[in-house]
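Replying to the earlier thread about multi-chain prediction with a worked example.

Input:
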Amino acid sequence: MAATTETPVAPDAATAPIVLSLTGLVKHFGDTIAVDGVTLDVRRGSFYGIVGPNGAGKTTTLSMVTGLLRPDAGRILVHGVDAWADPVKAKRTIGVLPDKLRLFDRLTGAQLLYYAGTLRGLKNDVVRSRSADLAKALGIEDALNRLVADYSAGMTKKIALAAAMIHSPRLLVLDEPFESVDPVSAANVIDILQRYVSAGGTVVLSSHGMDLIQRVCDSVAIIVRGRVLAAGTVDEVRGEQTLEERFVELAGGRKAAEGMEWLHSFSD
Ligand SMILES: Nc1ncnc2c1ncn2[C@@H]1O[C@H](COP(=O)(O)OP(=O)(O)OP(=O)(O)O)[C@@H](O)[C@H]1O
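Result:
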């Protein structure tokens, strides 16, 4: 894909404060090193993409940022607050869309949003009006009174996204927000997020959608085997290539489709 003039502009490094700072993050699971010294800075007003192959450590990194997993080593500062020394203060400013959605799915969508909003200290009427706004923007108004357990995958993602945003956090950490979401809804969500970023919010998201990251994000980090192999503005990271080409290069290239002839010898 050719370079576009629409590439989002990264916040000015000289003036925009760092709202999320990761230094030397490490996480092991037994003998597996899931995250191996991740260091990243995200500035206010940034739309920051995290990409990497399956198993690269993206979810593990984001889970440490949002307080779901304790790091073995390293430091996370959210708006200058150490996320593991003072998690209550740090979490107040974050909205989280976790990867494995563990929602209270015996609640209706409206009840889930009510729970999310009141947990964050919002008054009843504020929760109700924001729930209505979010449901309308995400196209799930008709589903608000149905049990979340009965939602489709995309609808579940949307209600979780609404729950992450309802308290208008300064920083949104979204793990694969567009997975299972249809293209029209994804475009609506992007629109909402772009307006949020223009107003000074910050988005950090992981995704496998290289075109989407290249189009929407101003900055990106490519994580491979638990390490940041490239980070910076999207244009810095991709250089003369598309982001996808750069990603494939750093991830070790594509494997030639050799062998597997058995798959073409149809057994019936
Ligand atoms: N709870 C866990 N117990 C054991 N190993 C884990 C656990 N969570 C993650 N891992 C391992 O850590 C590594 C990184 O996983 P992670 O889920 O962070 O990758 P990812 O980049 O988010 O991948 P994907 O793109 O497939 O979602 C993988 O090898 C994974 O098997």
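The radius of gyration is 19 Å.

Feel free to reuse this layout for your own posts.
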